[in-house]
UniProtKB/TrEMBL annotation:
This is Signal peptidase I. It is a single-pass type II membrane protein. It catalyses: Cleavage of hydrophobic, N-terminal signal or leader sequences from secreted and periplasmic proteins. Residues 35-221 form the Peptidase S26 domain. GO terms for biological process: signal peptide processing. Residues 269-317 are annotated as: Disordered. Pfam families: Peptidase_S26. Its EC number is 3.4.21.89. The lineage of its organism: Bacteria, Pseudomonadati, Bacteroidota, Cytophagia, Cytophagales. InterPro entries: LexA/Signal_pep-like_sf, Pept_S26A_signal_pept_1, Peptidase_S26. It comes from Hymenobacter cellulosilyticus.
Amino acid sequence: MAVQSWEERLAAANAAAATNTDTSTPHKKPKGFFREWGDAILFAVIAATLIRWATFEAYTIPTPSMEHSLLVGDYLFVSKLHYGPRTPQTPLQVPLTHQTLWGFNVKSYSDAIQLPSYRLPGFSEVKRNDVVVFNVPFEDMHPADLRTNYIKRCVAVAGDVLEIKNLQVYVNGKPAVDPPQSQNRYFLQVNEPVRDKVFQEQGISDFNSPTGVPQPQMTQMGPAYVVDATPQTAEFFKKQSFIKGVVLDQAPAGQGRPRYFPITPITRTARRPLRRSQNLEQGQLRPATVAQGRPDGAAHSGKHAHLPENHHALRAQ
């Protein structure tokens, strides 16, 4: 019997491996184009939904209540980790939507199933002068977790005494710090129409107007423009020849406005002392705690949608 050298044995082993066909494991069929893209889109939607629920969410400022701190159209990300994310209450919802489908006035959710809502731990609490995003408590046509989002400034927390006197917010008897460029509401009595360019140059806008700036109105004092402006801007208009008078919108203390809650003596510029206590129901503000503040947001405050269940704050819309 001939003895094979190691070179011959290695060559024979390679030849046997090349001719050996293993039929026990079938070859994997590669994914098709649409299957591959479908899996990628599904993963992206799931990941985006989890990030949006548990970490942060993008918002666009829709109204001018926070001008000039935040402007209409500003794009911002809001952290949900600080106050703790809230578990979803409405599971039957089209992912990445809020209330309606994009481009359609059709509900994007079904409230057939409503789950109990729990607050996960956060690493912070709402402090005075924090700007917070929350769900409005009075919107009963939507579930609590799908109500309209508001962004306001929190000026009082649990145990504080809030008071508004002569346009100034007081917390625990001390004047609150006004944000830069705080605005009040004025009536501009005019001798002639004011050009839109004048309002634009002074940073005055009215997003309820088709032109984006205030339009003349017939008031008790005659033709006038109703504007939200800083005291410095009001002084500018007082010096203009086309302005007959600048009147601050300041209602007398004790003159109530029925559209505000509670139905007690309360105005835009004055409010009796209000102690903030635990007057919440299922983590939402009751209407009895709503008070009116300054139009620039200095006296706006809120129960954040992501507050811990035992934390309470005051919202003035």
